[in-house]
Each structure stands twice: as C-alpha cells, then as structure tokens.
Amino acid sequence: MPGSTFGKAFKITTWGESHGQGVGVVIDGCPPGIPMTEDIIQLMLDRRKPGGSSASTSRKEPDKAIIMSGIFEGKTTGTPIMIMVNNKDAKSRSYEPYAKLFRPGHGDITYQQKYGIRDWRGGGRASARETVARVAAGAVAKAFLDNKNIKVHAYTMALGGVKAKQRDLDSINTNMFFCPDKEAAILMAKRVEEVRKNGDSLGGVVEILVKGAPAGLGDPVFDKLDAELAKAVMGIGAVKGVEIGAGFEASKKLGSENNDPILPSGFATNNAGGILAGISSGDEIIIRAAVKPIPSIIMEQKTINMQKKPETISIKGRHDISAIPRINVVCEAMVYIVLADHFLRQKAISPP
User: Fold this and answer.
1) Cis upstream peptide for 325 (omega within 30°)
2) Looking at CB atoms within 10 Å, which of 32, 52, 77, 131 has the fewest?
C-alpha cells in the first residue's frame, strides 16, 4: 500500500493489520553502533499497551518486540532493522456484525471507495494497532538521539474538556493520563467514568516538548521542520489538528507581541515553538495535537450498508474511551523519528 513509508535519511516502512498475524516495521538508515536490544524497544511499547488507564481497551496484547534483523551483539549494524510484534488477542468475530456496515467516524467508507475492498476486522490497516510499529521505530530513533542529549516528552494537556493548568513534567508519570497537572488528572478520571456510563467517547490535546534539539535542523522550503513534524503527528489516526508554538493563538497577536525578542542569552519568549523559517532555533520545540474522540461508541448512530441502505449501528466490543493516553507515546515516537531523520540530513551537509 502506498504511503506506508516515512522519512528520507532515517526511513521507516510499517506493515501489518489489526487482526492479521502481526504488525511491524523496517527501519533503513539507522547508523551502526547504536546500543539496541528488544528490552530497549519494549520500554516504549509498554507505554502504548492496552490496560494502562481507565480509558483503555480491554484487549490484552503483550506487544513483545522481536528483532528480526539489523542488530548484532546488542548494537545496530547499519543494515535494515526489522522489528515485528505478533497479534495474540485478536477477536475478529466481534466485527462480523459490522462487516457490511460503514462505521461512522472510521475509515471504512473511504477505504471501500478507494480500494474496492477493505479488511473489516478491527479496521485493518487503518486501525490504531498499526501504531505499534511506529513506537518500535521511535524507540530506535530515541536510542540514536539519546547520545545527542535530545529528549522528547509527550503529555496530556486536555481530556474531555478538562484542561491542565500546570506543566509539571515530574508529574507526568505519576498518573494514568500522563498529565503534568495532578489535580487535572483526578478530574480527567472522573470525566472518563461519566462518559463510559453513557456509552460515548472523549477527545483531548497532547502536547509534545522537545529539549536539546540543536539549531539548524530542517530546510527552509518544502521540508520545513515544523511542516515535517506536523505531517508526522497528523499522520497518526486520531489526530485532527496540529499546531507549533503559539499556533492558532498567533493569529490573534500583533507582530510586536508574537515576535520572540533575541537577547545575548537567547530568546526571551518562545511563540515560534523553537522553529523559525522551517529551521530549529535551538530553543525548546513545542507541538500540540488535537485528538478526536474514539469513533467506536455504544450509542446508536445512523449509517448505511454496502448497498447504501440506511441502517443504525451500535458498536460493542473492546474499545478505548479515548486515544489518550496511549496515543501520547505514539506522538513522542513520531517526533523522535523526524528529529533523527533531520539530524542525519543535517550531518550530510555539515562541513567536515
């Protein structure tokens, strides 16, 4: 399927479907000598696994990474790295009632229109299950960038209308929603339970913060760093909007308010989100992703069948109430992949 490859110097190709034998990724362009084991990959995969929060699906997948190639004696060899994860708890029969119906909010109808055929078992290639492969690739990119002291943090700034008022990074791993505001996390948990009882779902906002990115990453025209980051994050299934720095708030400001004054010590503010003219400035990079509600809900919805006849549908089964917080590590992984790609591209043009 076209569109399954991302990146230029650090290139990934993902494969697999939600209810197939498994999912995986081939990574090409990773430099040799990077410490890499299945345990290193597993650290990120475990953050995406089901069951980590009250908003999560009850599907139980161990998501054990299996390295098939490109690693020898605990280090990358510079050759293509293949990582696979077997599907262990797929229950395709649960989707049989919807095989001839188009689920509202899902890609069922557009896949059918495009290809004339679709895998209705959990959404097939359009399923969030595909993001397992992205996280595995992100773990490799992270290992490469760890040596460059580049760190990416993804956390929940809003869920179901509850907004975080604090950005305490030390609080992120102390609650199930990876929220930097402990009080907001408590309210988010209550909101999830309210919505669960009604058979509905929630959306929210994930913020991604990059620390330690050097100045000079990105290109000034079509391969702007902010454009590449936006594509990477927007390419995650549930994401419907991306902004950098001040984002849409910049449209309300005067130029004198939005410009970041430059001092001998650095930038006085960061409305640019760490990127100017498509090139990293050396300041912190700030990205926000608007995450839509999960479309699989128990509440009855109007739809049509394959013959375009009207139907009603109530989707039962094992579904998340929200893509947050499991999507957070996916956002983090995609940002790591973009940064690794542009770091290698910049290295290629740097003077010896």
Assistant:
1) yes
2) 32
| 3-state class (DSSP) for residue 248 | helix
Q: Is the pLDDT of residue 140 over 60?
A: yes
- CATH code at 5-349: 3.60.150.10
Q: What pLDDT was estimated at residue 254?
A: 98
**Domain locations in the chain?**
5-349
- Residue 139 above 90 pLDDT? yes
Residues with Cβ within 8 Å of 331's Cβ and at least 6 positions away in sequence, in order, are 154, 206, 208, 233, 236, 239, 287, 289
Looking up tokens 């917080």 gives 325
Residue 10 CA, distance from chain mean position: 17
pLDDT over 70 at 352, yes or no: no
**Prediction pTM value:** 0.93
CA distances in angstroms from 95 to 121, 157, 306, 342, listed in the order given: 6, 33, 15, 41
Count other Cβ atoms within 10 Å, centred on residue 57. Answer: 18
Q: How many residues does the chain have?
A: 352
pLDDT band of residue 53 (cuts 50, 70, 90) is low
Find the Cα–Cα–Cα–Cα dihedral 71, 77, 82, 84, rounded to 10°. Answer: 20
Integer Cα distance of 112 and 189 in angstroms: 37
Handedness of CA 325, 192, 198, 88 (dihedral sign): positive
Task: Provide the pLDDT for residue 51.
Answer: 63
State residue 301 phi and psi, 5-degree precision. Answer: -135, 155
pLDDT tens digits, 95-128: 788 889 999 999 999 999 999 998 888 787 888 8
Could you please report the per-residue DSSP string of 174-209? GSTT--S-HHHHHHHHHHHHHHHHTT----EEEEEE
